[in-house]
Amino acid sequence: MIYLIDDKSDRQNDFGWDKNKIDFFKDIFISITSYSQIEKREERELIFSDGNMVLFHESFFDNVENKHKKDGNEIRNALVKNSEEKQNFKVVFFSGSYNSRELNETGGSMPVSILYQNLDFFLNNFKDNNLVDLNYLFYGENPNIENELLQSQERSNSLLIDEIFNDKIESCSSNLLIAGNGQGFPNPFKSSINFTFYNKNISDSGMSSKIEEWFSEKEYDNIFIPLCFGSTLSDFNGLRLVLHIRCSDSINSLKNIFLYSFIEDKSMLWGNEYFDVLKTKNIQIIDYKKVDFQKAVDNELNDLSIEELPFEIKKVKLNPPKNYIDSHSIANEWAINRWSKTINVSDDRIEAIENKIESNLYFKYLNTIYPIIKSDVITDDKLKITYSGTPKVLYIDDEVEKGWGEIFAHFFDDINEIYFDYLVEDFKNINQEQLIKSAIQKIKDDDIDLVLLDFRLLPGDFNKKNIKEITGVKILNEIKELNPGIQVIIFSATNKIWNLQNLQDAGADGFILKESPENSVEDGFTVKSIENMVHVFNSCFERNFLKAFHLKIDELKTELLPRKNFKKVSNPLDINFVDEVLKWLQLSCELLAKNLNTASKTSSFLFLFSVLENLSNQIVSSEPIKIDNRSDVYFEFEFSRVNNRLVFFNENKETGLYSKTNNNLRKAKRGIPWAQKILNTLNYLNTSVESELDLNEIIGKRNDIIHANSSLKGKLEISNEELINLFNTVYNGLKKI
């Protein structure tokens, strides 16, 4: 029986291995996607029986649902032990991190894509012949290709040996010749620099290491490398090495490269992932012939320039590596690298990502086609943001400890001297309910003003189709339920318009896009993203006062709503009054949360002033006091709850400003002038308005808005300070009513 142990059913579907296809081979083939299927020891012993074969994905036990360290190690060790001790038990390890195939006596290893591409050939052969022939699994429809290539290599070596016998090539150019280990390649040059590529160095990191070792000090004119080397000749590792050389930062990355080959049928290269590198400038395949090596050194090619390199490498269409769980992980590492270089910040975790990006071919490829130039670096002075008070920022992201934490600590703490912290949790081993509870508790405990929130935080979020079920959205909703004034910025790789719309509807105050590789097509995208980040933070910190507004509104609700019940309280308030003032306060905040433009601020100011007018109606008696001195009849006015009379505020006709007098307000008619009523209300409440100048500003601003005309121009602009001043005036008044 053949067992496939791979936790990613989605990956199987992507390669065409759906349930129907797996069921077709059910007599000989069993797919295991969960630890629960092999949890019992007797089930594992059955799998390890002699005559069976296991195809094991290296990251199976990295999955949260399969994470059993003890059993995971035990099963891995048992796979290796049984393959070594039992003649007819084979195990093949596969992973997206493998760059090449290696077939050996116990089984072998291979890239995940090769396994699924060839699995059909392998199972059909097993079904027809009842024979485990790993050549079908490793080489697909041409199981004999390795033997054929080995024979062709031996013939070509022999012919070249004869050609150069006592007559090697003399060349004035500086040539570097690389050969594969144990391939018996005869050096056709009398003089050249020679290096050998051993099988252990065919990984991305191995190739990058050798390029740094061999290409950093001496400059060459021509580089000769074998098309076929490594444990599997049909991997055509020379194509991959060529791309590594072109995408590496060395003095030889632009030199002429010749791939020497013994392959007669070049069409077998067409399906190789790196085939398109042959379409780029100054890279050629030459035959195992002396004349071809001679032509290569004699041929004068136009130099490849550094300016041409990105356009040439774009001819290669390279797919993301399969060892990443999803595009989310790739985008994170790519963005961390781009942002850290652009704002010039680093730590051990960022350096680890940089080292990976410098050795991983996919990231080297991306860095080559989307290079960061010196002018893209942003200095600290351009990262300054404007804020008041002492705001606190909390960052919630499952990737925080990969480098984002250091980037934002540098931005907030080092540059802007703003309190910054992040949520510490084991995101792989926590459920959604626990994470939401932990996040909200942290926000409460630390009195957080702004939350920087990732969209997808848990592995299960990537499979959810309903956006409302995604963890980031649920945390956003909980934060806004706690206090709508707490600013929440979504920091995510998602740029799907429907996601952004839903997040905005849920109350998100801003968006910052994590840079995915596809975003980097746009010149200067990284700089624009960071500049947008600064703008978003500035906008949110400008609205930071809304948190205090909402806290005070909640406080007023607690105090005023019970007073609507005339029968149960000693100091009741009119029901309509309570409902009206709370409604206007809420609307005022909602307007400001959406936008701080002139229209929103003006409308908000008027809503707040409506509350002040309602307050005035409650405080000032509507019944005037008639004074009849026979020769002089006039009216005075008083407050509803005390017998104090309203005083007169004198208006300066030239400036329009009012000043308080010691005289009672007297009028020949029964009606109270509007301005006198409002000024007496403010004076009576003894609110935070501390001077006649403040009184005049509030009244004057309201009159400017109501009687607006073109001559007022900038006077119609409402500042945040004026809004805060009026809100606090109203709040203090409602507290004292």
TrEMBL record:
GO biological process, one term: phosphorelay signal transduction system
Biological classification of the source: Bacteria, Pseudomonadati, Bacteroidota, Flavobacteriia, Flavobacteriales
Designated name of the protein: Response regulator receiver domain-containing protein
Record-annotated Response regulatory domain positions: 426-519
Species, as recorded: Polaribacter pacificus
Domain Inactive Receiver: 199-285
InterPro entries: CheY-like_superfamily, iREC, Sig_transdc_resp-reg_receiver
Pfam families in alphabetical order: iREC, Response_reg
Source organism superkingdom: Bacteria
